[in-house]
Amino acid sequence: MSHKNLNEGIQPIPVEWQKEEQEWNEAIKVSYEKKVRELVAENGQLLEDNVGLRHQIEIGKKEKSELQNALEHAKKSDPEVEVAQAELKKQLEIYKKKLKAKLADEVEKMKKRLEKEVEEIDHINLKVAGTDGSLTSVRFRFDGNQIKETDTAEKYEMEDEDTIDVFRTQTGGLGKFFL
């Protein structure tokens, strides 16, 4: 049984397609740069939100301190004071729980937002149109390996500035026959 070279029969990209490839690369670059700008803006918003949350925490600490001071002041053996003291402790615990829950919710929202952004960056969906506007079937290769739709950059250990080869899929023609 003979092994067939995987690249056998693959024609190099014709000169007229090189301009299309450059346009595709430029479009991908522009799209990528736009996404990066959006993420930078989103990051700025997240930083502002973080500052707002820190401010809320400081307000909460101040209110907690005031409640603790009132509680200390109320420490007397008077039954009314003991009731007020117990009520203040309850209110303090309720406030602590609400603050923790609010912070946990905000952290979870930020985490989900960042996970979504990372997921969006991991994949680039392309539609390739010929010069006549019809969709063209293409294949992608990296370091000689065909890239499947479900493959990721991590699988091929791709880094920034790596190049993916694009080949137009050929249809028709005669195959080799052996008798």
From TrEMBL:
Entry keyword set: Coiled coil, Isopeptide bond
Give the domain of life.
Eukaryota
SUPFAM superfamilies given in the database record:
Ubiquitin-like
Give residue ranges for domain Ubiquitin-like: 139-173
**Keyword ATP-binding belongs to the record:** no
> Known Gene3D superfamilies for this protein?
Phosphatidylinositol 3-kinase Catalytic Subunit, Chain A, domain 1 (3.10.20.90)
Which intervals of the chain form a coiled coil?
57-127
Pfam families in the cross-refs: Rad60-SLD (PF11976)
Q: Family membership, please give it.
A: Belongs to the ubiquitin family. SUMO subfamily.
Query: What is the official name of this protein in its record?
Result: Ubiquitin-like domain-containing protein
